[in-house]
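User: Hey, my collaborator sent me this sequence without any context and asked if I could get a structure. I don't really work with proteins. Can you help?
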Amino acid sequence: MKRDLFLTSMERNAEMDPSLRPDISETPLKGVRSNIVQSIRAFRVQDLQDSARALGHHFLYASLGNAQSKQDVLDLIAQQFMLPAHFGKNFDALYDCMTDPVNKSGPQPGFIVVLEQIPATAKFDKEAREQLLDIFRDTADYWGDRKIPFRCFYSFL
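Assistant: No problem. I've predicted the 3D structure and written it out in structure-token form, which is a compact way to encode the shape of the chain:
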């Protein structure tokens, strides 16, 4: 998913002026807690991306369908989230990259994250999937403690 290059003047104004942004109740996220990790279920990725844009939130998307192992998953997340070159490619480093440095970079409006097609393979088993989701749950808690929305949606392959 790429960010639209051309925004309407209304969208551009909403990005710059939070008072012009729609209320959460005007988006598909109505009724979704502000800090949560949950199955994507009935949500469409495009609707989540549109909601992020309308709310002025960061939108992070990773398609993990080609991953076979933990290292593959971390490599794809690093590439698609554009994590810094010093990313250590382990779960602790993933958590670190998504929390403290981002927080220190300035005020954050919120995050909508999509992890699509998390693999279910012998090298990325149920335990590894739960560890990955736990990192995102911990990240949601981190941002929740700072009153910043962090919603993560996932699907399995």
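In plain terms: Confidence is low (pLDDT under 50) at residues 1-16. You can pass these tokens on to your collaborator as they are.
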